[in-house]
């Protein structure tokens, strides 16, 4: 599930200058959507690139194909100053609902906004979810129980957006019933809370890998090969690196060059990843050949505990360098498997072992190194059920 952060910035926030400050903070933090009134859509477009949802304030109209695109929202939201926020009574028979009528008409609105005052509004939100691409729900006196109920009942019918005011509330919304809301609608002027909520979104979306150990069985000096350094646009921590290897089923953890040495300055943006033929793991769970990487591509950064994040490739350096062939064995359910890779013969290239970071030049047979092992073959980087021999 791809999590998103929506930022509330309608007239309830204050005048345009107050709304602008909040929107600017959201753009800088990396929110996915900004929710405003229709009159502010073009202003938001001028501030930066972001999805814009607009409250219709009860005056919903069919989108004009000839209208200026800058004035048209990506999603029109019905419910403000209507039944959704309690400004109008919800009819006893929902077939007479004005908000639902608008949502059910093509081209008028794709999102519904409901404040949960009591069980009747929770039921109304369920009805809105059947007609809306996005259903925004904001709890009043109670939040968790109605959110749990909606997650359980709505399923995949809509993109559920839960109202929150802090990053911690966002985390709770994302984790509720172990499924969580698809998105959160954040209502705060606190720049730190906006940034932290985006960080929570990113954390919740990241893959957690199960790393295992492999025992080094052979280290052989080879001739020179075309070696690839991945220079990212991101700084890496001391326990982070990338997963690379000659065989798609077994990738070695190679540390970023964060360590200082007497001869070479640290380069915490760099992983010396091996020869051009090798695989590197990507954020979508696939792989790419090192030779394929280009500036602007995304690669997966992983730490020694298997926590992952994304990094943008800024530059790829390919140079001829002397190499080691490193072979290791992995204990599997079916016995023992062999994996290997080529890494540059240099003290600055370090792998994660049971005893901590270790330069490839110091590796010995019997050392245990951290690897990511999966028994599926890959075709164009995608895991497939197919018999492929790699040796």
Automatic annotation (TrEMBL):
* Record's protein name: 3-dehydroquinate synthase
User: What biological-process GO terms show up in the record?
Assistant: amino acid biosynthetic process; aromatic amino acid family biosynthetic process
Gene that this sequence comes from: aroB'
Q: Which UniProt keywords apply?
A: Amino-acid biosynthesis, Aromatic amino acid biosynthesis, NAD, Oxidoreductase
Q: Does the keyword Flavoprotein apply?
A: no
Q: One Pfam family of this protein, by short name? A: DHQS_2nd
| Molecular function terms from GO | 3-dehydroquinate synthase activity; dehydroquinate synthase activity; NAD binding
The enzyme class is: oxidoreductase
State the taxonomy lineage.
Archaea, Methanobacteriati, Methanobacteriota, Stenosarchaea group, Halobacteria
3-dehydroquinate synthase N-terminal domain span: 3-200
Cross-referenced InterPro entries, in alphabetical order? DHQS, DHQS/DOIS_N, DHQS_C
Q: What EC number is given for this enzyme?
A: 1.4.1.24
């Amino acid at each position: 599930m791809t999590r998103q952060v929506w930022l509330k910035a309608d007239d309830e926030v204050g005048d345009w200058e107050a709304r602008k400050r909040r929107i600017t903070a959201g753009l800088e933090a990396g929110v996915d959507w900004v929710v405003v009134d229709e009159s502010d859509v073009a202003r938001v477009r001028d501030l930066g690139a972001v999805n814009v949802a607009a409250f219709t304030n009860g005056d919903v109209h069919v989108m004009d194909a000839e209208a200026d695109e800058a004035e048209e929202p990506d999603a029109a939201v019905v419910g403000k100053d209507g039944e959704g926020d309690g400004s109008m009574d919800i009819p006893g028979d929902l077939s007479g609902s004005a908000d639902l009528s608008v949502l059910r008409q093509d081209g008028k609105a794709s999102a519904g906004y409901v404040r949960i005052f009591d069980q009747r509004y929770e039921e109304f939100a369920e009805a809105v979810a059947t007609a809306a691409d996005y259903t925004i729900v904001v709890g009043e006196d109670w939040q968790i129980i109605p959110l749990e109920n909606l997650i359980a009942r709505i399923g995949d019918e809509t993109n559920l957006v839960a109202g929150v005011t802090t990053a911690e509330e966002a985390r709770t919304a994302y984790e509720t019933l172990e499924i969580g809301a698809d998105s959160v609608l954040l209502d705060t002027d606190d720049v730190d809370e906006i940034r932290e909520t985006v960080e929570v979104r990113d954390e919740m979306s990241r893959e957690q890998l199960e790393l295992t150990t492999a025992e080094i069985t052979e280290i052989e000096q080879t001739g020179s090969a075309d070696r690839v350094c991945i220079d990212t646009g991101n700084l890496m921590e001391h326990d982070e690196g990338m997963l690379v290897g000659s065989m798609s089923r077994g990738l070695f953890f190679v540390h970023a060059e964060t360590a200082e040495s007497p001869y070479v300055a640290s380069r915490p943006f760099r992983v010396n990843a091996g020869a051009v033929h090798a695989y590197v793991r990507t954020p979508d769970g696939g792989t790419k050949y090192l030779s394929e990487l280009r500036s602007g591509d995304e690669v997966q950064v992983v730490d020694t505990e298997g926590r992952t994040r994304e990094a943008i490739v800024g530059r790829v350096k390919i140079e001829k360098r002397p190499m080691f062939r490193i072979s290791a064995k992995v204990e599997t359910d079916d016995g023992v498997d062999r994996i290997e890779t080529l890494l540059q013969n240099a003290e600055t290239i370090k792998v994660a072992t049971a005893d901590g970071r270790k330069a490839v030049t110091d590796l010995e047979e019997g050392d245990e190194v951290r690897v990511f092992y999966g028994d599926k073959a890959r075709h164009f980087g995608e895991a497939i059920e197919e018999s492929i021999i790699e040796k």
